[in-house]
Amino acid sequence: MAEARLPTVVLRGGTVVGADRAERGDVLVEGGRIVAIGPGIEVPRGSSVLDAGGCLVGPGLVDLHAHLREPGHEEAETIETGSRAAALGGYSAVVAMANTDPPIDHPAAVRAVAELAKGALVEVAVAGAITKGRAGERLAPLAEMAALGVRIFSDDGRGVQHAGLMRRALEYARPLGVLLAQHCEDEDLVAGGVMHEGAWSSRLGLPGQPALAEESMLARDLDLVRLTGAPMHFLHLSTARSVELVRRARAEGLPVTAEATPHHLTLTDAEVAGFDPLYRVNPPLRPAADVAAVRAGLLDGTIDAVATDHAPHAPDTKELPFDQAPPGMIGLETALSVAYGALCLGPEDDVPGWLRAVAEPDAPSPRRSQAPPVPRLAGAVELFRLMSSRPAAISGLDARGGHGGPLAPGARGHLCVFDPGERWRVDPGAGASRSANTPFASRELVGRVRHVLVAGEPVVVGGEAQR
Predict the structure, then answer these.
(1) Tens digit of each residue's pLDDT (9 = 90 or more) over 347-379
(2) Catalytic site residues?
(3) Phi, psi (5° rounding) for residue 425?
(4) Fewest 10 Å CB contacts: which of 74, 97, 258, 449?
(5) Nearest to residue 336, comparing CAs of 268, 262, 394?
(6) CA quadruple 239, 242, 248, 251: dihedral positive or negative?
(7) CA dihedral over 11, 304, 123, 404, signed as positive or negative
């Protein structure tokens, strides 16, 4: 769509979230860009006025980590349905992981997915695989894919097991100016485990995955970053020691970034007590102390971003027994609400019971084993930093597509209008995704997306997708 044909839109009466403060005001978007911000903006003739009263108006969210399944598993998700779910969740851009079938491990695959993404409701950035076939044996043609605009490379779903190969990948990636994103998991240590190895796995008789499977690969790769000087991003960190390892690496000045998922900052391994396959995910849900550490890492800046790891699966696969069902949860439509409830609401707020502080760690109730209380975010500025500006910078979507703000005249019109007062219950069957495997089904959430603009075009209005 040519910018001249884009509508003129006024977002009226919201609280505009800037880089360092939030202030009441209107936002005028014209020709795909923000023209003015301030109180009482005059509405140009022929423009659309969207009510933002009581809402936060921030930059469109950016997801570093989504599985859109196309090509190969369109029964679970397509780029079209995944992008619709992303828009409804407040996103203006997502990074689509490379573990499709076949994988995105060569230029032709990049071109094919990029072509499919042209009709998406939000911008879809294509990630490439680090190794051919994601088999961990030979490097994929990183330079050829980078020449097509691929910024992030990952074998996500698997970690690169061989240290020598990962070293070569980092040495190759550094002069290309691209970022390797690692799924930290030592497959020998996992050895068939289907949940966190600990008290609950012993109680339930399920094979466990030790936290060390994540932590040992993370420690190895931090050493490789130290050796090569190449930057690296760590996907879905989930343990207290992982957070501490990254904290020390950043204090040392290593060029590393990290993300955490909404489910790893709100749910614990005690949820598995009912053997519901919805709670099978990789890395697995961890004990309350790990959940608290992940939250603390987000709060103190050790962890840069909240990323969904949106992982749709067709219903028949998630109806298998727990140890046979594939790992993964959807999250694009719920991530902002879950993060807001977990990070921004405190004891003085009317927080849904499931989000309240954890009972004693040895409590037998799976629904009560949530994370202990931790200091809360100061407010909306930090929330949009974690879900918009930082992921945009990590992915390169700030420079390439103008995502992540800051909101100012001349900036691209990527905007998310979030109502922090709306309470709603998650209905998996009512979502835009082709899949319904959400762990938050029937739970009450606080805060919901009202409007979304992508490059000035209203793609969500009043909580409804516009096409």
Answers:
(1) 788 889 888 744 333 333 444 344 445 555 658
(2) 309
(3) -110, 140
(4) 74
(5) 262
(6) negative
(7) positive
